[in-house]
Each structure stands twice: as structure tokens, then as C-alpha cells.
Amino acid sequence: MTICSVGKGEIERLEAVRSLNLSNKPEFQDLDAITSFAREIFEVDGAVVTIVDHDFQWNISRSGFEDSATPRMHSLCNVALAEGRPVVVENLSIDARFDGNPLVHEHPGLRFYAGFPLEIDPGIVLGTLCIVDTKPRQLSPREATQLERLATVATTLLRQHRDTVRVARLSVSLAQSARTIEEQSHALTLQNRMLDEACALGEMGAFDHDLVTGQAEWSGMLKRIHDLDEDAQIGPVSEFVHMNRFYSKRELKRYLKAIREAMLAHQTLEFETALKTAKGRRRWVRLRVDFEYDANGRPVRRFGMMQDITRQKRLLSRLDHIANRDSLTGLFNRNYFLRHANTFLRANQHVTTGVAILDLDGFKAINDSYGHMAGDACLKAIAARLRRHCSKEWLLVRPGGDEFTVVIAEDCQIEALYARLEGLRQIIQEPITWKGLTFQVSASIGLAFAERGAEPDAMDLVQSADLAVYKAKAAGRNCLAVYSSDLHAVALQRFNIINSARTALENGDFCLYYQPKIELADRSLSGFEALLRWRQPDGRHAAPGEYLAVLEDGEMSRRIGDFVMDEAVRQAARWRADGFAFGDIAINVSSSQFIGHGFVDRLISGMETAGLAPGDIQVEVTEGVLLSTGATSVASGLKRLSDHGIKIAFDDFGTGYASLVHLRQLEFDIIKLDMSFIRSMLTSPADMAIVEAVLTLARRLGKKVVAEGVETSTQAETLLAHGCHYGQGYLFSRPKPAAIVEAAWRELREAV
């Protein structure tokens, strides 16, 4: 059964509900149009606009739904109300939140529900626009966007209704005041003063124009709205002189036309416009104009109220800015992009259109090394460069993170557009200075063009541009890549290999090979590194380099990482039980494994259950893991492991952006010197200098060093001479299955 919760601000929310004056049972024809339209386009059994009161949910507009009210304790909309966000339930009958709800388990037997909150004021949600169906179903992203837009329109109509109720109440109050003035002439002065104060409070002024004599009168508040002195005269001629003075020609023409049409139709005119006061200040005003007619139906009097709504307009403008602009950079946000990108593209189909995605390279290193304030300064600097370099007609969007989206419309040749974006790429990589620091980022840019003659779809272009970004990063980053149809084939290939890996993991086709780490001084066994292999149908065991896409997928990376951890712990326990002095087993850990605390707890618990000591397993991480989106979780997890006594190795040291920064910030026990330096150190003075520097640094910091990729005795002897502790590479052994490496090392020891 749905719970009726009373959350923060419930009293204010119920006050807002009461402001709609639902007790008078108003008709909502505009809302009825929305619910009918929603029911039709989503092809559901019912669409409802709900207002949730203290005890009941009032279904103030409904299509295909019978009940005008529902007890709040049975309301499906309570969940959306409590969470303040859209709620989509594909099958209500299996959702524990709706156990026992008669709308689900009795008549009408609802199964599907999608509700979008109606937020009439910031933080004040009155109810929802929801669609329901007696069959389970899904809501696509496109349908969700459509339903959200309808909810926005419904919210606007409710605001208008609320404002109408307020005006009606004010009109009643004014009418009562007028009757009081007529009946009690001796209190005229007091009543006028009260009315003036009320008008001042509401920033409203009154006007009265005798159309027969031409005489016009303005209240004091109306004069103040126009920045006129209290004693300013509004005579038979000067009223229109004043109007010419305050209104632009276009607005005056529009106002006078509306006046004429309202008089001819014998209707009340409601009108919003902008004016410039006597002091040159711009104000927005709302007018309500009525007319008095003689016996022949000719207008003889025009009168009404003018309200200064400048503050409301500014507030709405501010709210619009909050809703549609990125608060950090001032560029458009994702919400604006989703609502306006298609309109922009389709309005410019006569020129070259497309979407470019700019993904910043190296930003994560800045954010993690110097803090979020430095990262924010970097993003603002990049946004400023985008504004300066891009056409003013383009839509500049920051959807989030370190990514920018540019919606392009340009009447130019494709080559000119390439040159424009290439210039933008070069400008982005110019140094950024902040508080005495200088950093530099680059951009991998993916570009997708809309097809000429076809109706463009912004989200399709974003998907294509994303594939192009992936291509740019694969090409070495800091370059421009253009979408081509073959990228879909690459994406499909990636999808297929991930699916194949998922099946292989379930079928037990992954295994571990072990490569020894050797004490260079006496060539004794120090430990092993566990290396992943995938058993292929032809019997071959593939190394990770053949399926990097699998390891770059968050879910598969975590699952395979867990497999490696569990298998390494089991193998260490077997060797320990067999009396094989294996030293330790090092496992490589991905950033996805550190999200949450599951990995750390599982490793520690698994080792304790297997009877292993903390030193039996080592954890290796690369700088890529430290720079990942889960960097905070990684740092926290490494500290917990270190506190437990498990040694941490910094893998591929020297190949990243900020190896020294991480070496300083995190407690590493072992540095693994990347094989790229070992391979060429005997022929490259620069690489030899780097090797010597790392070994010196490690010695002073009290760290052990493992040199990776040792393939010759000369390399091993040189490393030992410069103080390197351990070596790993083909000189000693290729990676092999556990049984083979164990047998080989047992045989070697017996021979010795």
C-alpha cells in the first residue's frame, strides 16, 4: 500500500493547493486537452492531472480514468510527490511500494504508471501529470521528454489558474470596497487611502478615460509606475502624448490594435507590454482594461488597472536562467539542449548543420591534482574560449563533466568548418593560468553532420558524434574525428565482443596465467603477477590487449576484476596448502571495482577465509585508475587495503600525467617501472636517465622497484647495478598456467 508521507514543506505545499480554490470545482478545459492528448499519443488507458491534498488526490483533469478523487493513502502519485522527481513504474504489480493498493490489485488493475511532478513554485509540488495503463509497458527516453514537456505546460496552466483566482479575490475585495464607499460616504477618505496602500503593495495603478469628453485620470500609483510626479496632469490630449512617450512604436501599435478589437467584441482586455518610464527605466506591465457602453453599444468609457510586473519578469528570467543555463560556465545546459536543439537544427536545414562534442583530455589530472576550484577555473576558461571562437548563431552547451557540445549551423563549405573546429582545438590547448599555476588541456573532438534533405534529430547526431569522439581518443586524443557509417560497425563489434566476454565469463573460459617476479640479486622467486587470459575456441589463450573494449566497460571490468581476485586468492591458498613458497600474487585492479566498498571488503574477507596473510596478495593500480571518475573511491579503498597490511604497487610508473603527484599523495609500497623505459634504456640516454631517476627517487622514499619487460641479461645486470630490487619479463619466464610455473620453480629449487 502506498504510504502517505508528510515531508519537508508540506504545510506550504497544502497552502499552495488551497490557493487553487478547488472547492468551487473549477473547469480545466485546457488541462482536459492535455490529458486527452497524452492518452492519445502514448496510447494508454488513462491520463490524469492530479492535485494531492491532505486526505485526497483530486483528479482535476482526466481522460479514460473514471474517479474524480482518490484517497491519498491509495494515491500512486505519492511516490513522485515524496521524491520530487519523475517516477516511472513499468509493472506496479511487482513493485513493493504498491503492495495492497486497490488501484493495482483490484479494479481497475493498473500495471503501468509514469508521473511527472507539477512544481508550481520552487520546491512546491502540487501533484503530477501521469499516464496509466492496465498492461505493463516501458517509457522510452523520447516519450519521457514528451511527457515532461506536457507536465511543464500543465504547470503553467495551473499557475495561470492560481493567478486568476488571486485576481478574482482581489476584484471581489475591490468591489466590496467600492460598495462600502457608496454606502458610507463619510468614510471615503479612509477607504481611498486603504485602496492606495493596497495598490502600492500590489504595484497596481488605476486609470479612467472618458471617451466622450476625452478627460483622463491616472491614480498616484499609476503615475509612480511611469516615474511621473504626483501632480502631473493627464488631460484630454496629453494621455496619448504620454503613451507615445512611454511605448515604442511597435508596442503602441500592438496595444491600440488590441484596444480596438476588445471594444468591438465587448470583451475585457488583458495585455502585457514593456514601457520606458519618464526616467528612462524599462518596466514590464500587465493591463486589465474594461469598457462602458451607451444604450446604442458605443464605447463611452475605458478604465482598468495596470500592474508593474517587472520584478516577476526578472524572477522568471532568473528561473529560466537556472533551468536552462549551466551555473558554472553560463552556457546552455542539457535541459535546454533536449528542448531546443531539434528546433534549432530544423530551422537551419538550408545550411550545413551538425553536432560537435568536445571531450577534454587531461582535465581529470588537473581536478585531482589541484582540486575542484582549479578544475572549475579550467572549465570556465574553456567556455570563454568557445564563446569567442564559435559563431554567435551556434548553440554552446555544457551537458556536464568535462564535455562540451556545440550545435552547428553555418552557411559554408565543409572544409571551412573543419578549419574552424581545428582552430578551436588549438585555442583550447593554450595554457590556462590560475592563482600562479599554469595548466594545459586538449580536446578530442567528434563531429557529426546532419544529412541534407532529411529531418535532423539532435540525439541521433549526439550518438554519432560520441562515436567520433571515441575514434579521436583511439587515434591518440587531441584531434578532430568526423563520424562515418563504419563507426557503427566498430561500435557493433565492441558490443559483440563484450557480449562474448560475458558469455565466456559465465562458461568459465577465463583463466589466470602467472609471471614470476625475480629478486635480481640472487635470481630467487619473489612472487607472481596474475595475468588474465581468455580461452579461445581454437585453444589459444588471448591476452587483454585483444579485448581492451571488454575491460573498458564498467560492468565487465568489475566482474572480470572480481574473478581475478577470487581466482588469485584460491590459487594462493592452494600453493600455501601445498607448501609452495610462492612469495605473493599481485592482481591488477580497475577503478570500477573500487566504486562502493564491496571490493575491499570482499578481498579482505576472502583472504581471511582462505587463511592467507595480508602479504600473500598485492594490489596493482595504474595511473588511469587514479584519474578515473571514481578517483575518490580508489584513494579511500587503497588506504583501507594499506591499513590492513596489503601492499600496493604503482603499475606502469612514469607513463602518465601526474605520476609524481600520486606518489606523493598516496601510500604506495612498490613502484613498477614501465617496460617502455626498460626496452630502450641501453640505447636511449634519455630513457636511461629516467630509469636512474626513478630508482634514486624510490630509494630515497623507501620504495621497492620492480622493472617490467626485462628480456636480456644485460638489462638485468644494469638494473641491479643501479639499485633495482626486482625484475619481471621474458628473460625469467613468460606468463604460464599455475601448475606449469609451480612445477618449474619446484624443479629449479631441487636442482639447486
Description:
The chain has 752 residues and is α+β, with helices and mostly antiparallel strands. It has 27 helices and 27 strands. The protein has an eight-stranded mixed β-barrel with strand order 19-20-22-23-24-25-26-27, surrounded by six helices. A six-stranded antiparallel β-sheet has the order 3-2-1-6-5-4. Strands 8-7-11-10-9 form a five-stranded antiparallel β-sheet, sandwiched between helices. A hairpin with a 5-residue loop joins strand 10 and strand 11. Helix 13 runs antiparallel to helix 14 (414-428). The protein starts with 9 loop residues before the first helix and ends with a helix. Mean pLDDT is 85; it is low at 1-6 and 185-191.
Low-confidence stretches: 1-6, 185-191
User: Reading side by side through the largest sheet, how are the strands ordered?
Assistant: 19-20-22-23-24-25-26-27
The biggest sheet, with number of strands, parallel, antiparallel or mixed sense and barrel status, is: 8 strands, mixed, barrel
Assign a percent range to the helix content: 40-55%
- Approximate strand percentage: 15-25%
Query: What is the mean predicted local confidence, pLDDT?
Result: 85
Terminal Cα separation, in Å?
75 Å
Radius of gyration, in angstroms, nearest whole number = 36 Å
Instruction: Tally the helices.
Output: 27
**Total beta strand runs:** 27
| Coarse shape | elongated
Structural class: alpha+beta
Task: Briefly say what this structure is.
It is built from 27 helices and 27 strands. It has 752 residues and is of the alpha+beta class. The radius of gyration is 36 Å and the shape is elongated.
